[in-house]
Structure formats: structure tokens, C-alpha cells
Predict the 3D structure of the following.
Amino acid sequence: KHEKQVQDFCWELIQKGFISSAHDCSEGGLAIAVAESCFSYGGQTLGATLTLESTLRNDTLLFGETQSRIIISFPEERINEIEDLAMTFPVDFSLIGKVGGSHFTVTVNEEEVIKQEINILKEIWKTSLGSYAGQVT
């Protein structure tokens, strides 16, 4: 039931034109989903800055493949509409960062745990084992 609510919420966001991108967290977790979104943001590569608070270990928080999580990006002026829509479905919604710049930066509990130029991460991703198996383009 929860997965359907999340999918229906995301579909509604798309139908209303509220979001710029959406990526599930099922393969590689939160950090991978955000990084992959940065690699193909409207045909360009953009960085992102995430600021997270959690009691989970960093590896679980950033790379855990928990289902029913979708990372979305959207124009700032849509925040209230998206929050209101999330309450009607109802699904959890958290603002975790911003898109922009040339780095992928993740801060957890006020400690910077990842900071790298997004183009370097994209090159690593493009030359990964998955690219040799035809899974990365």
C-alpha cells in the first residue's frame, strides 16, 4: 500500500508539472540516486548539496536500498504545493538539499562525509563495471 501511495504521489507531481526530475533509491541508495540525477539533469551535469540528520550509520543512510523512496527535484517556488500534496496522499516528504554548483557534497549530522567534483564522479560512473556490461550509457 505504501509503495502505491508513493508512486501515485510521484505520478501526480509529474502530471501537475511540479518536478524537474525523479529517481528511485532502489539501486545504490540515496547517494547514488542523487548522483545519477546530477549526471543527467536536463542534458547537463549539475552538482548537489545534501544536508541530512540521522541516527543511522552513514553507509546505511547513504547506500541502503530501502524501497518506496523517490528523490525529486523541483523549482523552489513549488515547495508549498508539493508539501501540501504529500499530506493528501499521505506520504513522507523531506527537503534534503539543493541542486546546483559543480560539486556533490553530503553533510550528515553537521559532518561533511562526501565532497567531490560532480564531473569526476560522472567519469567514474561512466567507466564502472556496469558500463562494460552495457548498463550505463
In short: The radius of gyration is 15 Å. The CA atoms of residues 30 and 61 lie 7 Å apart. The longest helix spans residues 2-16. The longest strand covers residues 111-117.
